[in-house]
Amino acid sequence: MIDQKNEYSIKEAFIFSQRMALLSKALWKSVEKDWQHWIKPFDLNINEHHILWIAHHLKGVSISEIAKYGVMHVSTAFNFSKKLEERGLLVFSKKEDDKRNTYVEITPKGEETFIQIMETFDPNTNAVFKGALAIHDFYGKFPDAMEIITILRQIYGKDFIDTFEKSFEHIDQEFTEIENKVAKK
Amino acid sequence: MIDQKNEYSIKEAFIFSQRMALLSKALWKSVEKDWQHWIKPFDLNINEHHILWIAHHLKGVSISEIAKYGVMHVSTAFNFSKKLEERGLLVFSKKEDDKRNTYVEITPKGEETFIQIMETFDPNTNAVFKGALAIHDFYGKFPDAMEIITILRQIYGKDFIDTFEKSFEHIDQEFTEIENKVAKK
Do A26 and B153 lie within an 8 Å CB cutoff? Predict the structure, then answer.
């Protein structure tokens, strides 16, 4: 059975999507474990840290944007944002020209926590990083995951990937500042 | 800060591992949603279906092997296997030469359910598949996800990936049989 328009067989489609399902499960389970371990000393869960991440990179972001860029339900985005607000890491606000949406902003205490977490990152406790070192040794750089980005761009849209890439440009700049700070110590 | 031995900077390490974390979260959330939707009519969850998958491809598999190849805790593997046993989809047994481990085997009813699920697979409801069609149109084939496989091989070991690949060779053969059956209908 060949889909004439797209020229793929149902077998090919099935095997590809099943491969991706099992690979992404295995990848995510490893990422999830390391991520939880990394942020545990700060008493945050992955969604909370992800919300702080988004609030840090996108100044003044709405709950629905947090849900979109954080790949979580709006209710999850709201509930965990609320918990971060109670801890003084975020503040909620309304915009003058948009009374319907709730916006969040990271507080100075939130920024401080976020930077502290970044500073405690240790690549040697990160399995995906260590797993990619063989590729780095071989090619001289880490994988760019272009296929995954292409697939996610189709699923979540151009905006999602553009915002994702912008946040990494932002980290690049920031990290240089943190490195300089650490180097001076 | 350059790690002299491996020639990567901490910034590079941080950015790579964070990119992979966020990408794998977004990928998994999409996979999880479609997987749940696909197996819902059969009243199974992802771990249960994954256990059936493993029991189908590896004849006579231990609970610890299910945990390993299914990327789940041993207790999760045991509890969900138990539920499948209660539904008559698996049977538990002990081996003559290995009384300490529990082995599971898929029953004829389990096989029937497993094949039925395969037959209801519709690529058009699978976002990762649809997301990869642009790559297929461009390159003439679906991504092989080699970078991910390399990383997972380092994390979970050679055995894990070899078994993974063998199960897909197995599916390839089986699917041809199912296609022939469907074509005759």
Answer: no
